[in-house]
Amino acid sequence: MKKWFPLTLTLILAAWVLSMLRGPQNAPDGPPVKEFGKLPVIKDGRHQPMDSMARNSLLILRKKQTLNTEPWKSNFAGPKILSASEWLMELMMDHETADNRPAFRIDNADLINLLHLPTEPGEANKTDGKHYSWNQFASHLDSLKAEAQRASQVKSDLRNAYERGIMDLWEATSLYKTLKYALGPAAGGDLKAGLTEFRPKLDASRDAFQAQMDGQPHDAAALDWAQAQLNAPLLIPNGAETKDWSNILQEVAGKKEDAAPHYALAAYADIAAGWKAKDYPAMTRAIAGYQKQLEETGVLGKDLKKATAEQLFNHVEPFYRGMVISVLAFLFALLVWVNPQKFEWSRRTAFQLMVLVFVILTAGLVARMLLEGRPPVTNLYSSAIFIGWASVGLGLLLELFWPSSIGVAVSSLVAFGTLIIAHFLALDGDTMIMLRAVLDTNFWLATHVVIVTLGYAATFVAGILGIIYIVRAFFTRHVTREMQKGFSSMAFAIICFATLFSFIGTVLGGIWADQSWGRFWGWDPKENGALIIVLWNALILHARLGGLVRERGLLNLAIGGNIVTSWSWFGTNMLGIGLHSYGFMDSAYYALVGFVIGNVALIVLGCLPQRCWSSFRPAEETPPVPPPSNAPQMPVMTRPDLRN
Fold this sequence. Notes:
- The protein contains 24 helices and 6 strands.
- It is mostly helical.
- The chain has a two-stranded antiparallel ribbon with strand order 1-2. Strands 3-4 form a two-stranded antiparallel ribbon.
- A hairpin with a 2-residue loop joins strand 1 (40-43) and strand 2.
- The protein is elongated.
């Protein structure tokens, strides 16, 4: 059993991942969610399927990619779970129902009080205490708007939790309205009647805008409606480029009343008509007809097929599944530390599971590269994924050379940590876009970010080796002097790798900066952080080779590399200054501070005398057996303990 268990479990989990390649499936007698999710749209400046827009929007609204329609009920009560695409269909074509769905997550107690929301969970209040529907606070939007205007005057890094919650909810409500009104006159299913109702609203919004410009009293509701329409995703294709697409407000406003409607607008009206009538076969036919028209016009070309591929990628969720398997592999690696001889099968299980994780992450990275048409590292989210992938590869190499389950433990820990970071980064919205226009994609950028990120990954791997060594040696009796040397050898080898790649990556970054910005080095915080990583790794190597530190000192310095790398990776962005300040800003401040404090605490433990460590504490002497009372008394000779 133990002989076949590692391979059997690995194959079962591989089958679990491969089963996702079937793609999303429609419920029997349900709406064509899969087909609707493939429809192309332009949001956040890029072509994407409806499925991606729905998932990214739900992540912003409620921090999940699904919607629990009754979160106040236990799972045993059978609450209905809507997929992101199904929720988006409902929001676009059935406003009344969607407005009663608990689609907003609100955690701040002061914000809940501002909006007069119920705090007691239960079916009577239609909340679980943190998820609320649009209708539950829509009547208090004026209060929310006033507070958002006040909070916007405060610098982002100085806002308190209440003000951050206000700004997040205000942005979420704006996003909700743009999706809600995205179909415009087509949402009701009767395009002619919809246009008859839509055009007067359009005229009223124009009058309100002109009155506002003239400083005259104006209809604020009309302006709010127009703002939501103008910010709506682009659904009308007029060419292959993003600039050629328009939203429905622009399409209607740019045509005469007697002009024939755009085929996309007519198609969405047919889709909405099928939804209203619950005629799901008619919806399927309308979607298929629209897809055929898109293919015949050729306005999208390969982007039309890419939408299908991206929907499948979203459904497979390779990084989430890799994270789950990493946790399982770490648990098997822990068993080995209890009894290496008895649990050798557990080490092989952990190793094979991490090989599977490496394959999954590799496939996910390649898929993202093909979908984006860019190198694997383009923003902080992709850098977290890439560091996780590289760390798994380095950990597996360590395990091949030092088969002790330490390599797989390191790879699983770093993979889990970086994939968790990637999950929280995804809460800010679409992850497949460049976060800064200044980051022009070219050869030097591609090589710079990939190589320097490999340096980040290697430095983290060495740091996690140091953490595992100190935790095991300080709190357990499992670590021997020989194992200590093994930890040191592994960390030294990884730090050599980290020094090389962080140095080359930094130099390539200077070449790219010279081409893009006209200077090789500008003492930008991000540049300084990269340089500090190089210097720190070089310091460790010189200290070890020069005899300034031995095994324990090297591992303590490796933990310091975690602090230096986390600062360069995230901390420099939180300063809000410099050309590299993009993406993750103040929202990770407390997590970063906690990470630094934790690593400092471990370094302090690592610097304590080894007689305080469980693994190296001298064994207690066995008390001498007292001689018989009638035996002659002789002096007891003791030998000094030379084990230290």
